[in-house]
Amino acid sequence: MTRLRSDLVWIPTFAILVAFAVPWPLWGVDRVAAGLPVWIWWHVAWLGLCAGLFALFVRSGAWERGMGRRAGTDAVAADSAAADTVATDSAAVDGATSRDPSEPTGGDRR
Amino acid sequence: MTLGLSLGVVVGYLVVALALGLVAYRVSETTAEDYYLANRSIGTLVLLFTTFATLLSAFTFFGGPNLAYRAGPEWLIVMGTLDGVLFAVLWYVIGYKQWLIGARNGYVTLGEMLGDRFGSTGLRALIAGVSLLWLFPYVMLQQMGAGEALVGLTDGVVPYWGGAALITGFMILYVAVAGLRGVAWTDTLQGLFMLSVVWVAAAWVVSALGGVGAATEGMLAARPEFGGFGGGAYTPEFIVSTAITIAFGVTMFPQINQRFFVAKSAATLKRSFALWPVLVLLLFLPAFMLGAWAAGTPVEVPTDANVLPVVLGEYTPAWFAALVVAGAMAAMMSSSDSMLLSGSSYFTRDLYRPLVDADASERREAWIARIGVAAFATLAFAASLFRPGTLIEVGDTAFSGFALLALPVICALYWPRTTRTGMIAGVAVPQAAYLLVVLSAVVGAVPTLPKTVLGGWDVALGLMALSGALTVGVSLLTAPTEEGDASRFAVAGD
To answer: Helix or strand or coil: residue A30?
Structure first.
């Protein structure tokens, strides 16, 4: 297993991100700022925060570790034509080659 | 003259989308994997937009602004939360896991994946049957949206049934000739197009109203309650119920769920995941605010028309209003295409082949799929003529029906102890109960069952909890069958 204990912090983080995408603390507040109700600005800022944290989740490798996989591997090496990282992940290579041996090198980028 | 222009723009746009599909068809291979999954070769931009465009439906373009117009801009919060955040998290929890499993075992449909894991053709057929059942109202929703859009654009010269028939015809034609590669291409085109055009539309209307501040002031003068968050139709129970049922429902939609199998690599899924909240916001903010701002304008919206085309017709030139409606209709068409296409793969792979004719040739299967699509779309068209509810109501029914599948599926994905009996109980019982609630509202002979439970919570949310409890409870009480194989879902690579 390659999960890290520190990755567990992502579970409450996601819960908070989902829960407060709705501006509950501003319930009933009717102030307008810069042309829009303030609670709409809360939502806009919050979704920006989500995008940032989601990117961090992916970049930190927690995305892979969360599924019990080694960070930095990619089950099908299509995005980087070089298959170097994937060679360490034997199961993933099996998965890829059993389908279509030509695919990992194929440049079919539609 | 402007009527001819409007219709010309709408039909012209639909024809261009169709032509693009034909080009895609010419470069595609004829295998089932290519037809349904574009050979699992979909890259980030296309995956993102093809998923995005699938959400771009009449529900978003017409239903959303209609609701914002009538009940207030809180709809932006509901949709933003469910699509931008909750769906993104589920994209990882369900989507990535399914991608890993699918890439390993070559699955094309959800039913196939679960049927194989639990060694049960019955479960496979059940999942496919349930999915097709709820697909029906959602396809119908697109036809209703198109019908209403053309009524609004042409001031009723094109009747409601005419618009619905037009989109039905294009839908069938398109799916029959293009396959997923074609759908994915046009989805990208339409996603980008609609994203830009909605902003141009918002800018146009806002400048006519004297700026964002003036538009909001006008809205608040006409409807002071729109300024405060919550209230009216937007109770906390409504917001939470709607966000949860729709977000979970979306992941189980055949066309969305099948997208989880098509990504070319994990990197594609990761990038799409991080970009998702921003993309969702970029679309919803102008679309729904236009609906809310319209409440402050003197524009009269006829009862059976949509707000967006009417407002655009008032504040922008005819050709532009027509272009937006055309774009929205094309987006709805591509939503429907994706749905019908995925639906047809559920039908042929999970119902027809396992239950009727296991040895059908590829050619025969392809024909069965196309005939199935045509029949399905035609029936949905017929049902759409009765207009059994508002766009939001019909859409929400479909989302909720799919949402009831989500918890059993998550159980199966993450809990090796899940048994076949647990899955069947967890899927079949809540589905039967929900179907009863929905039918009781439509069929006059049956007394209408309550749509909310425990003081304002959507009945679908209660049934979701039941589906989870049944799956876990029955699994604990029953032993795994011999045909089941939990290792099919193991993905830990090393």
So the answer is: coil
